[in-house]
Structures are given as structure tokens and as C-alpha cells.
Amino acid sequence: MNQNMYVNVLIDRSNSKLDKAFTYKAPKNMIDKVQIGKRVLIPFGPKNNQENGYIIEKLSHINIKNQIKEITDIIDDFPLFDYNVLNLANFIKQKYMCNMIDTINTILPAGVRNTDIDNNMEKYFRIKISKEEAEEFIKINQDKYKAQVRVLNYLIQNLEAKLSDIKDNLGITDSAIKTLLKNGIIEELKKEKNIDIYTDTHYIEKNIVLNNEQIDAINIIKQKFYERAFYEILLYGVTGSGKTEVYIEVIKEVIKNGKQAIVLVPEIALTPQIVRRFREHFNEDVVVMHSRLSDTEKYNQWSRVKRKDVSVMIGPRSAIFAPFNDIGLIIIDEEHELTYKSESTPKYDAKEVARFICRNNNAVLIYGSATPAVETYYRAEMGEVDIINLTKRVNEAEQPVIHIVDMKKELKEGNMTIISREVHKKIQQKLKLGEQVLIFINRRGFSTFVSCRKCGHVMKCDNCEMPYVYHYNTDTLSCHHCGKLIKNVNICPACNSKYIKFFGIGTEKVEDEIKSMFSWARILRMDADTTTKKNSHDNILTNFNEGNADILIGTQMIAKGHDFKNVTLVVVLAADMSLNIQNFRAYERSFQLFTQLAGRAGRTGTKSEVYIQTYEEKNYVLECVKNYDYQGFYKKEILLRETLDNPPFSKIYTIMFIEKNEKNIIIFINRLKKYLEYYNIKGNYKILGPSPSIIHKINGNYRWQILVKGKDEEKLRNFVTYTLDKLREKEALGDIRVVVS
Ligand code: ADP
Ligand code: ZN
Ligand code: ZN
Fold first, then answer.
1. Shortest-distance atom of ligand 1 to CA 241
2. Residue 556 C-alpha to ligand 3 middle, in angstroms?
């Protein structure tokens, strides 16, 4: 029988023109090796250049038989992915409108794709001949080949040994080993290097008696788990209510049933802390995946999962792609964090990917948060997600008292510094007591807003309630949401004062100013500039926690999850910078951020305080933060979202054009607008813009955008995809890069 085998190959190059399957024939001698998920080398194009690709389909028949080229080589011995992974990749491709290869290359960690597998291997040696033969050899060569005999004796004792161990222990060179190998007396085997990236972790044994709320939560989740159906649960518990203990107990149950679990954390910075706690319970059964690992480390963690050596994976966003095959549970800790959304192509949302995986595996998905995302809480209200409440802080620790400080008053009374007199006094007190202080300043924005220091008025777009972005070069204010553009103002429209100006301070300046105020204090700073190295987050935090500094100044990074023992004062320097970010989620983000910051104080029960400095002391966000009132905040926020038709009441896609030539962008983005309006036949979609993006220029490239809003996500996505296809078909976009998110 003349058996033919064809394969569909996905070429390993990100290009929308190559975003489809190309059919190849497998030569006879490779047919046995053909498998979905293996990499191949193939001739491509008129010049038959060799390209890398992945086998994504096996075919026994095809219609067009001529001109089918043959595969040059099959690269892998084992497939890197299977049919389930392809399904997942397809889901991501559709949902986030990107090329298939981008999704595959996101799902497979770099270490798997790029590393020469040999680099991850270590050479071991063992005796190849029988024991009798070996003893015979030793007897005969006792005096002649001393080194070889010693190696054999060593291997009789140790069965297998690493090259380096043999050499170190026996103090010999390679040559004896090489000769033994050449004569077939010993053989070489390759084993994966065993790299444990958290070997330095020391476990702190703690005897925890779970409280009733925790026990109830655990029981409910276990019960859902045993129903073997897809469930989503919001574990809504105040900071310090012991959510992590709940996760651990539930995971134990999952493992007992032979299934696996993934725990997502929002930041690399948090992984060592949580890994330590998980190691206490699961030892070697836990692996970690994150972007700061080396390719080899990534490869090792990935293959330990693939080999079923471990049952739990912890890590930020990308850990969701752990190659488990029987997931029982996924936990998304601090589910409201924006870091679960990828910033690079494909711009996937790990929460949505988790949902897809759990649905396909009939698994339980837990969202943990003290300040749930408005969209998650809304889904819970609608009955799509179950809620479990943890209302008490463990150890009965008291919530810190939160004060709102009016900075307008400070200015009026002559204080020109960044710190109010009250806070200044407080810091001095705390330092005297030997207690620690945390000072938070929002990341220096890429753009600023304009506000009045006398009355607190913020310049906002009257269509969108969104703060205007100030553009230095043109002295204009633009609404990045709807595209409205006005001239900047010199006089406050609310109170006629001339103290209206743009807002912005950076962490460095804050550090300088605080150093000069408290010259005798030991100050640490933690922001993007000071934490580029692999363990620097952890080092700064450990340093601070061990009492080697009095004040820690930091950005968003310090807000999340850290267990500070001795912090009794938290200061938010300029709440305005968080409140007036040009995004409809700014209030939600601010509420979460400030609440979480407050949670950093008084973790061990000492009386502690939080001061939030602002020019908008009456803002309802701050009012609700002060009263620990999530529900109150949610009620106001969800109303505002509904009024302005923002998510969850709509879905918004941003279509961004990126290119060096700004004039060109403006021409084509206006054409895009015409196309969108033309195809929006029933008027179902709102088309906003074009306007310059918040980050208007980066690496010499300009960025402009149009927002498209609609009720039905899938229809909206089809509308956007269809219109962009038409635009590409009819207009020469040239070098313009189009990014949809
Ligand atoms: P959350 O994640 O809800 O903020 P954690 O799980 O981090 O809270 O718990 C905060 C601290 O309380 C941790 O140090 C944890 O070990 C401890 N803890 C948790 N549950 C209990 C308990 N039932 N009794 C005593 N300590 C607990
Ligand atoms: Zn004013
Ligand atoms: Zn607007």
C-alpha cells in the first residue's frame, strides 16, 4: 500500500500574511516521527529558504497533489504541545486578534523554544558491562591503569555519577573516563540539570489554627471541586483575613485527587514570599515560572510539569500556560490587579484564559481579593460568580485609622513642601518610636492632568467625565477617550484663581525632599529604577523588613501583598495622581490601591495610621476608602459606569496606529474612522476619536487611537476585524503598525 503522509505547518514568523497553515509532505523515513507539536524545518517561498515551523495537523489525503514540497527535517523528538494547547491557542488568537504563531510562542516559554536542549543536560556515567566483567577488569588492570580502575570502583559504589563529581572526588583528568567510554566499559547518559531556584528559602514553621470563616470557605470550595463542574468563586476577604491559608488547604484536596493547580500572583515581586509559604506545605511539589528566570530555568520548570513531577505551579500571568493535563483548580490572587492583562502581543487577559481552561477541565476558578474588580463583583451580583466572604482579620488585628489631608489648606497656610505639617509630625513620632514608615507616590505618569491648587477643580472632558491630558508642546488639553481638544486654561473656571497648573512629581524628587527633611533617617526607595535586577525586589523588601531602614518610599510595587511587620504609618503623598489617570478605571484603581496600602500597616496588631494627602478631599473614592466601604464605593461606581456606558455595560476596543511619521498616521486613522462609520450600518457601535494615545510617542514612534464601544463583545470584535481587513485590503497602510486591544 502506498501510504502518504501530509502535514500542515505553521511557520515560526510573526506576519499576518503567514498566519495560516502550509501543507507539506513527510518523506517516507520521517512518517513515524510526525506528530502534532513538533518543530520542523521546511523549504519556503520561491527560493526555498529554510524556515522553522510547527506541525499543527496531520493529513492522510489532500486534494492538490502537485507542487507539494517535502519537510527537510523534524527537529524535536517529543512534541512541544498537543491538541488541547492548539485549542487554547486558537481561543487566544480569536479573542485577542493576533497571529497564531504569537499565541503558540507565548504559551511555550522561551526556554523551550530557544534553548539547545543539550545546554540543559548534564552528563552522567555508569558501567556498561556486567558486574563480573567489571570486577575482572579491575583485577587485571589493578596496576596498569590505576585511574581507570578507580573510576570503575567509584561507579560500582555510586552506580551513576556526574562527570564533575568523578573528577572532583578522584582528582583525575578526563582521559581515563574517555578511554573507558571508548572501550565500551562505561556509558554516558544525559540527565536534565536539576535546578531548584528557591533553594535558599528557609521555612518558618507556624502553627495556624484556622478560624471558622476560613473553615467554611474551605468546605464550600471543596464541595464545588467535588461536583466536577466549572465554577467561579469570588473569595472576597479583607486584607489579612487569611486567604492564602484557604488556598493551601483547598490545593491539598486537589492534589489528593490526583489533579493539579495553578496559583497566579500579580507580580514577580510577590512570588518568593508566596512560594515560601507554599513550600512549607508542598515541598518539592511546587514549581515557579516567571519572566526573570533564565531560559534554562524556564525549560526545567516547564519540563518538570510536563513530566508530571509536580502538581502546583505558582507565578505571574504566564504561569497560566503551565503544561498540566488535568487541572482541578486555578487561583487568581489579587484578581483585580491589571497585571493579569498582557501588555505585549497577544494582549491576553490571564483571567479570561483561566476561565477558558477551567471550563474545559470542569475545574474551579477562584478569584481572591479584598477589593474585587468592579466587573467581577458585577458578575457576582448577576449570579455568574459565587461569593464567599472573609470579614475578619486574623489575630483580631485592628484596621488602621485612615485620615484624609487637605493639601489646599496647607498651601493656603504657606506650606509649600510635599508633606503636610500633620504628616511631618507623625513621621517624626514614628521614627522616634523605632517604627517604620511607608510612603507611597504614584508612578510618574506619562501624561499629566491640570488642576487648581486653590479649589481642587480638575479639568475634565464634559462628554466623558475623564480628566484632560495636558500636552506641553501645544499647550492644549485633549480627552484621550473621545478625542475632544481645547486650549489650556490659565484661570480656574471654578474659582477664577491662577493656581491652576499641571500636576506631577517623581519618586526621585520625593526621596530628595524627604532626605533633606529627615536627614538622620535611613531611607530606601523602591521603583522601576531600583528594581531592575533579578532579586532586587526581594532584597529591598527583606532589607526593610529586617529593620535596616526607617522609611520606604515606593510606587505601586509596595502596595501589593507584602507582609510588613513593623510598619505603623502609611502615607499617600498625592492621591490626585491616582484619581486623575485618564482611564475610566482610575477611580476603581485608586480605591483598590489606597485600601491595599492601608492593609500594609498594622499587620501585627500594633495601632497604626494611614494618611492620604490630596487636593480633592471630598472625592467619594477617598470617603469610601476612609470608611473601608467597598460596597458603598461599588454602588457609586457601577452607577457611573452605567451612565457613561463603560464596562461592564459595554466592551471597548482600542485600535492603535503606530508609526514614525505622524502625518501619515493622522491621514490613515481618519480613513479608518470613515470605514468604521460606513460599516456601522445599524449604529450599534460608538466610535470615539481619533486622538493621540496617552503615551503619544515612544522610541521615535507616534501613536494614535480610535476607541470602539459596543454591547456585544463578539459582534464588536467581528465588526472591528472586518473593518480592519477592508481597510488593509483597500488602503496601503505601509509601515503603520496596527494594534488592537
Ligand atoms: P490575606 O491573603 O487574606 O491578606 P494571608 O493569608 O496573607 O491574608 O494571612 C495573613 C497572615 O495571617 C499570614 O501571616 C498568615 O500566616 C496568618 N494567618 C492566616 N490564617 C491564620 C489563622 N487562622 N490564625 C493565625 N494566623 C493566620
Ligand atoms: Zn479653582
Ligand atoms: Zn471626552
1. 3
2. 27
